[in-house]
Amino acid sequence: METGKKNYKANYLKFSLALILCLIVRLIPFRAPNVEPILGAMMPVSRAYGAFLGFSFAVLSILLYDIISGTLGVQTFFTTFAYGALGLWAASYFKKDKLVRKEDGENKWSYVRFAVIGTLFFDAVTGLTVGPLFYDQPFISSLLGQIPFTLLHLLGNTALAFVLSPAIYNYLVRKKKPRPIPFISLLNNPKAI
Q1: What digits encode the pLDDT tens for the residues 2-51?
Q2: How many domains, the chain?
Q3: DSSP secondary structure of 39-104
C-alpha cells in the first residue's frame, strides 16, 4: 500500500498529546506572533489519521485556546472555519501528493508546499474578512496590514512544516517494537517448542 494513501489506526492518546502540546506552545507569553504550531501539527494528523481527526484537531486547537485565553469572539468562527477546512483539505492533499508517496514516505517539501498554500488561504479568509465585516475597517487597510502579518506567518509555518511536521508524523505512526524474547525463555517455555 502506498504510504500517502494509508490511514493509520487513530491513537487518541498521541492525538491528545499533540493537541495539548500545541495548546501549551500557543499559551507561552511573549513568543513571536504568528509562529504557532497548529498547521505544522495538523498536517501530519490529517495525513496519518484522515480528514475527520485533522478537522477535529484544527477546530479544537482554536476553540480550546480561545476559551482558555478568554478571546472567544466572532473571529473564533472565522479561524475555526479556516483551520477546519485546512484539516479536511490536508487529508486529501497528502493522499494525492506524489512526493509524499515516495518509498520513504517523508518529503519535507510536501509539508512546506501545503503550509504556503494553507497559510495564504487562512490569512485571506481571516485577515481580509473579520476587520472589514465586523469592525468597520477599510478593506485597503486590512489588506495592507495583512502583508507583514502574512509574511511572518509564512515564515513560521514553513519552518515548522519543514522541521516539526515530519517528526510529528513519525511520532503518530510509530508502533511499539516487540521486545525480543531471550533464547533461554524460549527453552523454558514448553509451548514454544
Answers
A1: 444 556 788 999 999 999 999 999 999 988 878 899 999 999 999 999 99
A2: 1
A3: HHHHHHHHHHH-HHHHHHHHHHHHHHHHHHHT--SHHHHHHHHHHHHHHHHHHHHHHH-TTTTSTT
